[in-house]
Amino acid sequence: MFPDFDPVAFHVGPLAVRWYALAYMVSFIIALPIAKRLNRLSPEVATKEQVDDFLFYAILGVLLGGRLGYVLFYRPMDYFSHPLEIFKTWDGGMSFHGGALGVILALAYFSWKNRLSFLAFADRIVPVVPIGLGLGRCANFVNGELWGRPASPDLPWAMIFPTGGPIPRHPSELYEALTEGVLLLCVMLFAASRPAARERFGFLSGLFLFGYACARSFCEFFRQPDANIGFLSGGTTMGQLLCIPMALAGMGLMVYAMRRPAQVSAHV
């Protein structure tokens, strides 16, 4: 049986801090010093102060992009019929693909504003993104949401979720936390430690896009599709469909980066 978690982590006076919000806050706290260290590796990309400044843009990109992406990709007609519901973020509803687009736009604007190489700066930021992905999926599990497809009762970790009916299901949130979070983080940090990868601007960004697309597409085979969308053509899901352009863009970026000579300076 699914543990009876309280979705509220703690209270600060009348304010209830939920696990999902806490996951976002902890993610930024952990990721910030790592991003600073990555940006100081050769070739040097940005200063510690610039990374600090980008945090504000990153938060806006994640929140606005994630919410608008959910509205447009998953429930457009519902929200267009009731537009004020868009602002009720406390009821849930965030899209990683929308959040990714929001962060990309934030990276592009911040790089232009500070005269930084867009691809070089993005390469030093994306390796820490899996921290937020992993903790976010853990928060999904605590909330008992986004559970998986029906599983065999013989599966030792199959679980009966409160809102998933009486049948055992895959805890797909934990699968995603392990693949999109832990595994992808290890891959990205290892790659970022290699000078050859850092000196080919765009390679790490491409690796992240391709790696996430593969991890998410795999986990979608165990995750129950959104009830209002269901399965798409050929038994695919919306999550897998959105991963196709991400994977293609990732492969394109890696090929582009490897065909270019190594760069010794990251400034425009």
UniProtKB/TrEMBL annotation:
It is found in: Cell membrane. Pathway: Protein modification; lipoprotein biosynthesis (diacylglyceryl transfer). InterPro entries: Lgt (IPR001640). It comes from the Bacteria. Pfam families: LGT. Its EC number is 2.5.1.145. It is a multi-pass membrane protein. The keyword Secreted does not apply. The chain crosses the membrane at residues 15-34, 54-74, 94-112, 201-218, 238-258. Keywords: Cell membrane, Membrane, Transferase, Transmembrane, Transmembrane helix. The keyword Cell membrane applies. Its main location: membrane. A 1,2-diacyl-sn-glycero-3-phospho-(1'-sn-glycerol) binds at residue 137. GO terms for molecular function: transferase activity. PANTHER family: PHOSPHATIDYLGLYCEROL--PROLIPOPROTEIN DIACYLGLYCERYL TRANSFERASE (PTHR30589:SF0), PROLIPOPROTEIN DIACYLGLYCERYL TRANSFERASE (PTHR30589). Belongs to the Lgt family. NCBIfam families: lgt. Catalyzes the transfer of the diacylglyceryl group from phosphatidylglycerol to the sulfhydryl group of the N-terminal cysteine of a prolipoprotein, the first step in the formation of mature lipoproteins. This is Phosphatidylglycerol--prolipoprotein diacylglyceryl transferase. The gene is lgt.
